[in-house]
Write a structure and sequence with these properties.
The complex is a heterodimer of chains A (532) and B (304). Chain A is of the alpha+beta class and 532 residues long. Helix content of chain A is 54%, strand content 22%. Chain A folds into three domains: 212 residues, Up-down Bundle (Multidrug efflux transporter AcrB transmembrane fold); 80 residues, Gyrase A, domain 2; 158 residues, Gyrase A, domain 2 (2-Layer Sandwich). Chain A contains 14 helices and 19 strands. Classes of the chains: A alpha+beta (532), B alpha+beta (304). Strand 18 of chain A pairs antiparallel with strand 4 of chain B, so a sheet runs across the interface.
Chain lengths: 532, 304
């Protein structure tokens, strides 16, 4: 089917037109709507180093999620033992996933409790000490642990997505990388520092009672009373920038956490016009809050975020209706960010930022400009050179070259691949290498002509002989490019992509398209002497 | 137009002993430079740390920036000029602290100190140590696997190991010399530089294959000549193409070198070196290896 001149032309022309259509969104900003319905592409996707933005890789510390889970199990176990009247000494969490305790009484009684309600903890060891006391060590079932880790990561992904949604970045990309890393790309983000704070905060909201009876000085010296802990309130003086840390002695037990929040909004205090965050609890939270406030009137309730005390107001009376306030010396931005993280929910485990790359928009613009100049100047130089050295055959090669660029860019557009600065370098490089194929063919044709072959035979032999060299050499560069794609990230991956696509486009244009032109010239136009 | 007269008969292969000397010297210089510098200057990608690219609106001397960093306590920060006049690159190689917090501290402090000169933070890169180590391993793997893939492909296409071997030895030569150049010119070894290495690998083998392809063809045609003569003829025949192709790619890389901006500039420098040795190695490393193999191995097998 493709032997005929006409059919080949139709095919190549169709491909070219299609490629140009794919590129139109990038070149023309405003296209009529019927166009976008038929050809479903968008502008070429620019990498962060060209459009500016932030790239983050977070590692979810899923081990901590297991720790928290086991901690909660321990607390529940303590309460259950008390309810059932089983005498138990200290219960401690050991390591990430173990609980050890000393219990007295009938073995069957506590074993039954464990099998009934704590099947996720397996009995690792139980040693009988004297006087009917058993020392028991429990360990978290490994499958359960895996489950917790996995759901922690999924939840972290979801929560971060919620936060970023509310932050308002256009086209953010949030994906899971490997088993426990999250990749976030925020193109065009204006305030990268604020984004980092918003994303990286664990945002665990807790309510604990202040222990007004305990001696805070003693605690600060290291003698913390049983069941208490010391946390600080960190305040920054806006004028001097100095940081002040005020200690609070609190009862360890967390009465309520942020997962009962229904909503959190920023409001302005009517008296001083200072921003505060208004909390609204759901039904469970509302009732719980009512209970807590009712039982602890005149005591202070500390509102804690990520182990940092925000405020500790006195409970004046039982509060029904499920509302509360967080006040502090915020500005509106801080209050609004706090509301965002509270609304989106706490991260199930802390996240650590292990990689961050930010490119400012001005650098991005600069890079685009330099990239375009380089591409245009290189292409122009090569076009001139080819005409100068190979004359008419050079024009043929130039047609192939231009098509090569068009096809490469169109492929990028259709596969939504990203163009980065090294990617532009890859494009320029593949332009340089593209001419190699043409040079091989032309030199071979010249040789055949020197050996007095006819024009048609020379062209035939030229392409035939050069073909294997072209394929071999391009394929080996392709192999290197593919490995680079696998192992590179971000901008370098962009380089590998444009290089590989450029090579494939090159094989197509250099061999098939130029062959058509030569055939057309010699067969249809009837040129007798080749200007090469 | 003809750049090379069709009947040139330069004796390339005959001069290979001189070339061996040159190659050995160049490789020693490369390895020596790397050794003296204590390894390559790993960029933030591989070593972990912080990179800041900053620009001032008014003239600032590099020592002012250094002093500014010292007052925060970042004495071990490396500062260099980058790109334009008032643009600097700050690099801090650290693996222990909370890098994110340190980066923030430095940015805010510098903003404060140079308030009247409008500091613009153009680019920030913070890479944790584990990520860096991961990447180093991956990069090495990529290079090794490319070598392997190429060797297999060439052996498959040329049916004898000697061509593949010649190609690989030429590649090794080029990679060492390119790394040497990276070390001598004190170019930062980052992911982009690694991309150069992989591209050079592609280009070098590209070049080698074109010539070997011609050798393969000529062996069939010139049955009477010995391998060395055939190689000479092949190299001479493809000389035009070799010069032109290397020339056009070099032209393109030079444009990147001058117009591509500072990030691409380093990339282009390494590419230029790689291009030169890529072409050189085809004639004076790959071919001699094939000749040696032919002389000692094939002949010995024939004798048996």
């Amino acid at each position: 089917m493709f032997r005929g001149l006409k059919w080949r032309f139709i095919f190549y022309a169709a491909v070219t037109v299609f490629a140009i259509l794919l590129l139109l969104p990038t070149l023309i900003p405003e296209l009529p709507s019927w166009f976008t319905k038929v050809i479903p592409t968008e502008k070429i996707h620019l990498g962060l180093d060209l459009q500016g933005g932030m790239h983050l890789i977070l590692e979810v510390e899923s081990e901590k999620a297991i720790e928290s889970f086991v901690e909660r199990v321990k607390n529940n176990l303590k309460d259950d033992f008390k309810d059932k009247g089983i005498l138990v000494g200290k219960i401690d969490r050991e390591g990430t996933d173990q609980i050890v305790f000393e219990v007295s009484g009938e073995k069957e009684k506590w074993e039954k409790l464990l099998t009934d309600r704590y099947s996720m903890m397996q009995e690792k060891s139980s040693t009988a000490l004297e006087k009917g006391i058993w020392k028991v060590a429990l360990v978290l079932d490994s499958r359960q642990a895996e489950q917790i880790k996995k759901s922690a990561i999924d939840q972290a992904l979801e929560t971060i997505r919620n936060r970023i949604d509310q932050f308002g970045v256009s086209e953010p990309e949030i994906t899971l990388q490997g088993t426990d890393r999250i990749l976030i790309q925020l193109p065009g983000v204006k305030d990268p520092q604020r984004a980092i704070n918003l994303i990286g905060q664990t945002a665990l909201l807790e309510f604990k009672l202040v222990d007004d009876e305990g001696n805070i000085e003693e605690a600060l010296r290291g003698r913390v009373p049983e069941g208490d802990l010391v946390l600080y309130q960190r305040s920054v003086d806006p004028k001097t920038g100095g940081v002040k840390k005020t200690p609070f002695l609190l009862k360890e037990k967390t009465l309520m956490t942020g997962d009962v929040l229904k909503d959190a909004r920023v409001s302005l205090d009517s008296q001083f016009h200072e921003p505060y965050v208004a909390l609204e609890f759901d039904d469970i939270g509302g009732k719980l809050f009512e209970q807590i406030t009712g039982a602890n009137v005149k005591k202070r309730l500390a509102i804690i975020l990520d182990n940092n005390v925000y405020s500790a107001p006195v409970i004046q009376e039982r509060i029904a209706g499920g509302r509360a306030q967080i006040t502090g010396r915020f500005d509106t931005k801080e209050a609004s960010d706090l509301a965002i993280v509270l609304r989106a929910g706490a991260l199930p485990a802390p996240v650590k930022i292990i990689e961050q790359r930010t490119v400012g928009p001005s650098l991005g613009q600069d890079s685009i400009r330099k990239g375009i100049i380089s591409t245009l100047v290189s292409a122009a130089l090569i076009v001139c050179f080819m005409i100068f050295y190979y004359r008419m055959a050079g024009i043929v090669a130039d047609i192939a070259l231009v098509l090569n660029i068009v096809l490469t860019l169109a492929t990028l557009a259709i596969f939504r691949a990203t163009l980065t600065l090294p990617g532009i370098a890859g494009l320029v490089l593949s332009i340089g290498m593209a001419v190699d194929a043409n040079i091989l063919i032309h030199e071979r044709i010249k040789e055949e002509l020197r050996w007095d072959k006819t024009i048609r035979a020379a062209i035939d032999q030229g392409y035939h002989r050069a073909f294997s060299a072209i394929i071999d050499s391009n394929l080996t560069t392709l192999i290197a490019g593919i490995f680079l794609y696998q192992f590179g990230t971000g901008p370098v991956r962009g380089f590998a992509v444009t290089l590989c696509i450029g090579i494939l486009a090159n094989i197509f244009t250099a061999i098939y398209i130029t062959r058509w032109v030569f055939d057309f010239i010699t067969l249809r136009v009837g040129v007798k002497k080749l200007s090469i | 137009m003809e750049l090379i007269r069709p009947d040139t008969r330069i004796d390339f292969i005959g001069k290979r002993k001189y070339a061996l000397l040159i190659s050995t010297i160049v490789i020693l210089i490369s390895l020596g430079s790397i050794f003296l510098h204590g390894g390559l200057k790993y960029g933030v990608d591989f070593a972990g740390g912080i990179l800041l690219q900053i620009k001032f609106s008014k003239a600032v001397d590099i020592s002012e920036v250094r002093n500014g960093l010292e007052t925060i306590g970042s004495k071990e920060a490396m500062v260099q000029n980058f790109g334009g006049e008032n643009e600097f690159l700050i690099r801090i190689e650290k693996s222990s602290e909370d890098l994110e917090a340190l980066s923030k501290k430095i940015q805010t402090s510098l903003q404060e100190q140079f308030k009247d000169k409008t500091l613009e933070i153009r680019r920030v890169e913070v890479v944790g140590p584990k990520v860096g180590k991961d990447l180093k391993q991956k990069a090495l793997l990529a290079v090794l696997l490319s070598f392997g893939g190429i060797l297999i492909y060439v052996a498959f296409r040329f049916h004898t190991i000697s061509y593949g071997l010649g190609g690989i030895v030429a590649l090794l030569h080029d990679v060492i010399v390119t790394y040497g150049a990276i070390s001598i010119f004190e170019i930062e070894y980052s992911l982009s530089t690694m991309a150069v290495i992989l591209t050079i690998i592609g280009f070098s083998i590209n070049d080698t294959i074109v010539i070997f392809d011609r050798v393969r063809e000529n062996i069939k045609k010139l049955r009477k000549e010995n391998l060395a003569a055939v190689m000479n003829v092949s190299i001479n025949q493809t000389l035009g193409r070799t010069i032109l192709t290397t020339g056009t790619v070099m032209m393109v890389v030079l444009i990147l070198f001058f117009f591509g901006g500072p990030v691409i500039h380093d990339f282009a420098t390494a590419m230029i070196v790689g291009l030169i040795t890529g072409t050189y190695s085809t004639i004076y490393v790959a071919s001699p290896v094939v000749l040696l193999w032919d002389k000692y191995v094939t002949k010995r097998m024939k004798r048996r």
